Amino acid sequence: MQGEGKYGMLVDYEYCIGCRACEVSCKQEHNLPVGKFGVRVFEHIDLLPEKPYISYFPFFTELCNLCRHRVKDGEKPSCVKHCMTFCLKFGLVDELVNELKKKPRQVLWVPE
Amino acid sequence: MSTREVKSVCWCGGAAGCHGGCGVILKVKDEKVVKVEGDPEFPTNGGRLCPKVLALTQVLYHKDRLIYPLKRVGERGENKWKRISWSEAFDEISGKILEIKNKYSAKAVAIGQGTGRIYSNWRARLAYSFGTPNNFTACYICYCPRGSALAITTGGFLEVDCAQFFPDRYDDPRWQAPKCIVIWANEPLRTSPDGFYGPWIVDCMKRGSKLIVVDPKCTWLASRSNIWLQIRPATDDALALGMLNIIINEELYDKEFVEKWTYGFKELSERVKKYTPDLVSDITWVPKEKMIEAARMFATSKPAAIKWGVPLDHTSNAVNTARAIICLMAITGNIDVPGGNIFVKPSFDVLFGERPGFELMPRDVWEDRLGKEFKLTSFFFYICHLPSIWEAILTEKPYPVKALILFGSNPLVAYANPKRILEALKKLDLFVAIDLFMTPTTLYADYILPAAAWPEFDTYRAWWAPLTTINKAAEPPAGEEGPKSDYAIILELGRRIAPEHWKFNNTAEVINEMIKGSGLNFEELKRRRIVWDPWLMEYKKYEKGLLRPDGKPGFYTPTGKIELYSTICHHYGLDPLPDYKEPVESPIRTPELVKEYPLVLTTGDRTWSFFHSEGRQIPWLREINPDPVVEIHPETAEKLGIKDGDWVWIESRRGRCKQKAKTTPLVHPRVVHAQHAWWFPEKGPENLFGVWDSNINLVTDISEFDPYMGTHCIRGLLVKVYKA
């Protein structure tokens, strides 16, 4: 078993549609009430000359532990499994860094 | 007790709405669903789930869920009830239905539902078997216009090919990704209607599909598209005719397909001549150059497909709008080819529209249905016209309607002119509502029967999807005395009001009867979980004799071809060619109103968290969308002195309601987008759950009907917006 610091989350925000499945799956998994989030989706709009460009970004909060208990059982974090566009990838940081090199518009997040 | 897992498929049965069909794994402990997860092995969703399903446990075990049958003891709307047993409820209700039948006729009893749900066909069979032609659904403003346009034009139903009928999906070598997908009046990512899982569009984008998006608002898909046509709401008919004009004039159509497989191309060409890019640009507000670019891109990308949405069903020219768009699919030769618009049907024909049991309905009785003047209501779907029911209740014309049996519907928020609907509800001799929660509508019922949710009973799914079972995972709250499945309620009512047609011993026999076309019974099907229909894996079925009952090549239409010119419409005395009509009020049709009502309203944008009027009491869903939102352009808001977050009135000639302004550059400066179906469970029954506060249907219109289907304008209307 790797130490938890070696795991991370790769967000392909080009394909985040802002559906909030990650938010609600996290709430179910960790039984979080209204107002508390393990991940929260933010919207940003760029007014480009041709047309607006909408970006959504899932921000992982201090409450996220990358679903330690699920990972122990060989499962993916709940948000990764349920993401409607498969835009979240969970794994070892070193492997995710390699993934990051392959495609633009991605962000790699690692908890403490 | 340990937790067990039940694999199933979700579909709206009150909870976790939308027509979805996603594979789920339900975790069950002590006969309660404690968790829902996506099933990674299920081909529809591959483990993905939306917020509506993920909040399932908050629906099933909500403190306000209806548990026992209730009988009204106070005045209607007063919320005074007496708990009664199921047998008392069934006996009393059926006694009253039979009394009304004896006093008037079976026609005086209307039996219907809201959106298409698991039990649609069985519920329709209850109406037909009882002998009332007044079988209704929301279908007349939701898919029936597009569906019947498809049926008369092509003889079947079409959907975008996202490899949904192959077990190995996108890896199947027969499939090819559409080169171009036109997303027309649709936000497929937010709901998955009609058997189509919206995120497949993103899957196709990752596989190279380019997008053209036709939408008044810049949606996420529009922002990722090659071409976004920001159209004036409810002018889609003009745009489609304009694109036909360009494609025909520039000879970009598929000459071989048109010659061999279509009927009436010459007449269509004549009709679209007047819809020049200049004229259509003036009508639709879409710049001419962009329209030409889009027409060229669509016509020259092979294969290309059109994914359309329910807004097209929300005008008084709905059928023609759909027919014009179908003509675009047809003349470009994109019908039933890999990556095009393919013919779909329920797997093994185990259900079809509203048809099961229709054979029990005498033809002369059927011809006396309410709204029979809308001919296409009797084509494939076999429904009556819902607005005509409200009028028949109130005016007793053409004959009285005295009883309403309503499954899973909240018309006081979901339909136009709700105050008139309320008057109709109050006038009924018998109003029975079947639902999961008390709503503004159920407050006016004489009896409320609590419905089970989909994880609480066995059923199946086949609506343009492989055949699968939906498996009971847990008991409903309160066991035998608690909520019953709609199937069980229909069976018990059927046994009492039409006993000769309801000889089934239990709902298991009902399900087996429904799926018998597959050659399997429920238990066999459940073991296999998913069964694929080979018909749905075939392309160019028109060449192979797979579309017509006589087995000959061609389409299942009177001419055997795709009827750009509809011989069926000609037969009914309706315009056989698609044409354009302005919405009932608009800057072009009623310019005199623009001074007072300068903005164009569209309604019903889909949200991530709600399916129509469902979900307002579910904490995790309401958190995503806490207030009714009207979107307005920042420049327009500034001119009106409106700030982001202000409560504003949205007012038309018919009425007004209050919603919270969200300023966003994603909408057109002259258009506002107001959410629909809002009510406020937290405001309590003493305030009718705030039914009139933010109800956009106080603003929408029902004064002019589509001559084919009886649809009316709930989009593209004129309003003014001001601070509340």
Provide a descriptive summary of the structure in words:
The complex is a heterodimer of chains A (about 110) and B (about 725). Chain A is α+β, with helices and mostly antiparallel strands and about 110 residues long. Chain A has four helices and five strands; from the N terminus they run βαββααβαβ. Chain A has helices spanning about 20-30, 70, 80, 95-100, and strands spanning about 5-10, 40-45, 50-60, 90, 105-110. In chain A, the strands form two sheets. In chain A, strands 4-1-5 form a three-stranded antiparallel sheet. In chain A, strands 2-3 form a two-stranded antiparallel ribbon. The longest helix of chain A is centred in the first third of the chain and has 10 residues, at about 20-30. Chain A is globular, with a radius of gyration of 14 Å. The mean pLDDT of chain A is about 95. In chain B, strand 10 (about 210-215), helix 7 and strand 11 form a beta-alpha-beta unit. The longest helix of chain B has 18 residues, at about 85-105. Chain B has four domains: about 5-60, Phosphorylase Kinase, domain 1 (2-Layer Sandwich); about 70-140 and about 350-530, 3-Layer(aba) Sandwich (Rossmann fold); about 155-345, Dimethylsulfoxide Reductase, domain 2, CATH 3.40.228; about 590-724, Barwin-like endoglucanases (Beta Barrel). Helix content of chain B is about 25%, strand content about 15%. In chain B, the strands form seven sheets. In chain B, strands 5-4-17-16-15-6-7 form a seven-stranded mixed sheet, with helices on one face. In chain B, strands 22-26-23-25-24-27 form a six-stranded mixed beta barrel. Chain B has about 725 residues and is α/β, with parallel strands linked by helices. Chain B is globular and about 70 Å long. In chain B, helix 8 packs parallel to helix 13 (about 320-330). The interface of A and B includes residues 18, 25, 34, 45 and 56 of A.
